[in-house]
Write a structure and sequence with these properties.
With about 325 residues, this protein is an alpha+beta fold. The protein has four domains: about 1-60; about 70-75 and about 105-145; about 160-240, GMP Synthetase, Chain A, domain 3 (2-Layer Sandwich); about 245-314, R3H-like domain (Ribosomal Protein S8, Chain: A, domain 1), CATH 3.30.1370. Helices cover about 45% and strands about 20% of the residues. Helix 2 (about 65-70) packs antiparallel against helix 4 (about 110-155), helix 5 packs across helix 7 and helix 8 crosses helix 9. It is globular and about 55 Å long.
Length: about 325
């Protein structure tokens, strides 16, 4: 399956765009992150994220299944032919002078030399049947394993708290590689979302320039949880290294309220710079609490933006 390459403001949006082009669910695709996005303040993107994706290759047919299909004919070609596709009766006719009938049986003499090929033939058929039976049994085992895997996939959804435990353990191990000693603050920010704030005195390397490394860690945790919980995963665990995400959200919220006041005073709509999906959602939620103004979205990713307009113009 060919790879497709997409770009967007964030890695998550680039993946969503790739899934749209492939026309498959995220569990049926595999991704390769070419480069992370370089973000500025309030959604200003200096360099888009770049992702390659393709449909996850289908599992090839098991060897036991192919062996079982061959076992039905005992490894031979059509009736009347040998393993090499030649005429089985023709060779027997040369040896014993027998005339083949429609069923491929010889009518030769009764001495031991003439009967020996028949005995070999019987043993060969019995051997082929045994191989077919063993292959069929192996195929049944494969089907049983697939059914067991299906049952496993349909198990109860992994609790969100358990996902947070996995995320915390992963980030703690990652912090050791960064040479940082960290702690965690766990918050239930919504019924379906837990925020893990990573605390510590030496988090500069984990935060990275403009918070890019912190954003990459959050995305990496999402991938780890997807692989461990699979389709049984529900809700979301967000990792905020050093509180960078919380501070950014607070700054964006203040900025949106200032623009809302300008729109109320002037009656003129104000468009924000293109932002990722999470920042757009925060902007919509913030303006929803403001009187006399509303929000609309315009454009397509990665240039989709929020516009704050007077309430009557929405």
């Amino acid at each position: 399956m060919e790879w497709v390459e997409t770009t967007a403001k964030t890695t998550a949006e680039a993946k969503e765009s790739a899934l749209d082009r492939l026309g498959v669910h995220e569990d049926d695709a595999e991704f390769e992150i070419v480069s992370e996005a370089r973000m500025g303040l309030f959604g200003r993107v200096k360099e888009d994220a770049r992702v390659r994706a393709r449909v996850r290759p289908a599992t090839p047919r098991a060897k036991d299944e192919r062996r079982r299909r061959r076992g039905k004919n005992g490894g031979r070609g059509p009736r009347g032919q040998g393993r090499d596709g030649g005429d089985r009766n023709k060779g027997n006719a040369k040896k014993g002078g027998a005339k083949p009938n429609a069923g491929g049986r010889e009518g030769g003499g009764r001495d031991g030399a003439e009967r020996a090929p028949r005995a070999d033939k019987g043993r060969s058929q019995q051997k082929a049947k045994g191989q077919g039976a063993r292959s069929g049994s192996a195929s049944s085992d494969d089907r049983s394993k697939k059914q067991e895997n299906t049952v496993t996939d349909n198990e109860a959804t992994m609790p969100l708290a358990e996902q947070a435990d996995i995320a915390q353990e992963f980030v703690a191990g990652l912090a050791e590689r960064f040479g940082a000693s960290v702690g965690f603050v766990r918050e239930d920010v919504a019924d379906d979302e837990i925020r893990l704030t990573v605390t510590g005195d030496d988090l500069g390397r984990m935060v990275g320039p403009r918070g890019n490394t912190a954003a990459a860690i959050d995305e990496l945790v999402r991938t780890v949880l997807q692989r461990q919980a699979g389709s049984s995963r529900d809700g979301r665990v967000r990792v905020d290294v050093g509180g960078v995400r919380a501070r950014r959200s607070a700054a964006l919220e203040r900025f949106c309220r200032e623009l809302a006041q300008e729109v109320r005073d002037s009656g003129v709509a104000r468009a924000l710079e293109p932002m990722n999906g999470a920042d757009r959602k925060l902007t919509h939620d913030t303006i929803a609490d403001e009187d006399g103004v509303a929000t609309i979205s315009e454009g397509e990713d990665p240039n989709r933006r929020v516009v704050i307009v007077p309430a009557g113009d929405a």
